[in-house]
Design goal:
Blueprint (H helix, E strand, L loop, with lengths): L16 H23 L3 H27 L5 H19 L9 H21 L6 H25 L2 H22 L8 H32 L6 H22 L2 H11 L3 H14 L1 H20 L7 H26 L4 H16 L5 H26 L10
């Protein structure tokens, strides 16, 4: 018995379980990235992690956009996504060694997932339409990018990094050009998928702060008071990140997208708000997760400058990404987010002598304060933000 097509091709839908199954590999991949940051806490290490994150972001986006265009999750679509899930396992496993011995496995897996996404888009899109033309013009430069990606995997050292940066540049150029295309965008599905990847990133925060518990119990020391305090502060931090995204920005960004009438407008909106603005949101959470693990392991010690910077830049990326998305959607400044990011940076600069628990508690207080102020400001002016006619 075949799974039926959508009665209306433009009908929105929720994420299919097979998409969530594919996401499980990103739990593994993101944990590899956090581990990479902890083992190489330097500017160079952060730069390499950023490159790897950018490469991981591409196939996830490709499958999300491809699934967004299908006429229901029929068996052939689910089969393609299951094959992509199989390829995502070696991709995730080779993430931490991608710039070394695991480069070829990493690149071939990424390239294979991208090709499956192209297949899904072309199989389920009517030829001779503006949507078909947009998809073809999107795929063409990305095929070149895949060749560059694999060529980079066959190179070594700086040449590999250089070629993979070229790969990202080609894809970025293709994204800019694709904004002129006529895309079919189901905003509800797009918003749900990006909410789920934010949840996966937040899961890395939970894993990071749970490691000190395992370490202490395995050593037979129980849970010292300082460790418990650090875990509580870290848990509050994770909860505030969840609240900072899902309480107001997430729903309002989705609602704004549904108000756009033309497919061209929705396509540019989805690219700007979801593909682009959510990249720093997710990357910032993982950067902060690496810092939280270091703080929770050594709660009474001064936080090393590298991990202090990871925490501040992680929060700046998270809050900044949300501010960018809000500006793109509503042409209004998320002032409390910007001020909160600046205040956290100040805490980090002035708190060089503070131990981990104290420093993290101050950061939580600043983040909580900014969200409270924002809440009361919107309560006074109304819960919805009016979009500018320029959007």
């Amino acid at each position: 018995m075949e799974i039926p097509r959508l009665e209306d091709r433009a009908q929105d839908f929720t994420a299919d379980p097979v998409e969530l199954f594919f996401d499980l590999a990103y739990v593994f991949a993101f944990s590899q990235l956090v581990g990479f940051l902890i083992n190489e806490p330097s500017w160079g290490g952060v730069g390499k992690a950023a490159l790897l994150f950018g490469l991981l972001w591409l196939p996830w986006q490709q499958l999300t956009w491809a699934a967004n265009t299908v006429e229901g999750f029929r068996r052939k679509i689910r089969l393609i996504l299951l094959v992509a899930t199989v390829l995502s396992v070696p991709m995730a496993a080779s993430t931490s060694t991608a710039l070394d011995a695991g480069g070829l496995v990493f690149a071939l897996s990424l390239g294979g997932i991208m090709l499956l996404g192209f297949l899904m888009q072309t199989l389920d899109s009517p030829q001779g339409t503006e949507l078909w033309d947009a998809i073809v013009w999107w795929i063409a430069p990305n095929l070149v990018a895949i060749v560059v990606l694999i060529a980079g995997a066959l190179a070594e050292g700086p040449l590999r990094i250089g070629l993979w940066l070229v790969n990202l540049a080609i894809v970025l150029g293709a994204m800019i050009a694709a904004g002129r295309g006529e895309w079919l965008i189901r905003v509800g599905h797009m918003a749900e998928r990006h909410g789920l990847i934010v949840i996966i990133a937040l899961g890395e925060v939970i894993v990071a702060i749970g490691i000190p518990v395992v370490t202490a119990l395995q050593d037979g020391d129980g849970l010292p008071g300082a460790t418990t305090a650090a875990l509580v502060a870290s848990g509050a931090f994770a909860g505030l990140l969840w609240w900072g995204y899902f309480d107001r920005p997430g729903p309002n960004l989705e609602e704004r997208g549904t108000e756009l009438e033309s497919n061209r407008e929705r396509g540019r909106y989805a690219r700007d708000v979801y593909t682009w603005a959510h990249a720093p949101i997710v990357a910032g959470i993982m950067l902060a997760a690496a810092a939280l693990e270091a703080i929770s392991l050594h709660p009474l010690e001064r936080v090393a400058p590298s991990f202090r910077l990871m925490l501040v830049f992680g929060l700046v990326l998270f809050l900044g990404g949300i501010a960018i998305a809000v500006w793109r959607a509503f042409r209004t400044l998320a002032a409390e987010r910007v001020v909160g990011a600046a205040a956290v940076a100040g805490v980090m600069l002035l708190g060089a002598t503070l131990n981990g628990v104290t420093l993290l508690t101050l950061v939580v207080a600043v983040l909580l304060g900014s969200l409270i102020v924002e809440h009361y400001r919107f309560d006074r002016t109304g819960s919805h933000v009016e979009a500018s006619p320029e959007v």
